[in-house]
Amino acid sequence: MDVLGFSCGIETPDYSNLHRDAVRIMLAAPNAHGSWNGASFTGQIYISLEAADEVDALWEAVKDRAAVIYAVDDFEYGAREFGIRDDTGYALAFGAPSTSTARRSD
């Protein structure tokens, strides 16, 4: 949370919310409307930013403070992004449309 600049708003046993600038993220336990039989989340959380320069600025702010999965780069699918792990092991990716004409091919 500190590495990415988020602040915790409300924190209860059932949910919390995080905020930074205009971004709000709510994290919640399964609700009481039914039993939870699903799997735990095992994927990557992808956070879209408005512009590639925001990706670069965030990368500079966190690259030495987080476990890096992959460094900032332009990818062949048209995104500039990077991936890190949070302090609980979740994979987080941050990206925006790339402004580069050169695309990575691997």
Roughly how much helix do the residues carry, as a percent range? 10-25%
Task: Output the CATH topology of the largest domain.
Answer: 2,3-Dihydroxybiphenyl 1,2-Dioxygenase, domain 1
Mean pLDDT: 84
- Enumerate the strands of the largest sheet in spatial order, edge to edge or round the barrel: 4-7-6-5
Form type? globular
Largest sheet: 4 strands, mixed
CATH class category of the largest domain = Alpha Beta
Number of strands: 7
Can you tell me the residue ranges where pLDDT is under 50 for at least 5 consecutive residues? 102-106
What is the string of helix and strand elements?
Answer: EEEEHEEE
Through-space gap between termini = 31 Å
With helices defined by DSSP (H or I, 4 residues minimum), what is the helix count? 1
In the CATH hierarchy, the architecture of the largest domain is: Roll
Q: Structural class given helices, strands, pairing?
A: mainly beta
Q: Provide the domain count.
A: 2
Radius of gyration, taken over Cα atoms and rounded to an integer in Å: 16 Å
Assembly state (oligomeric) = single chain
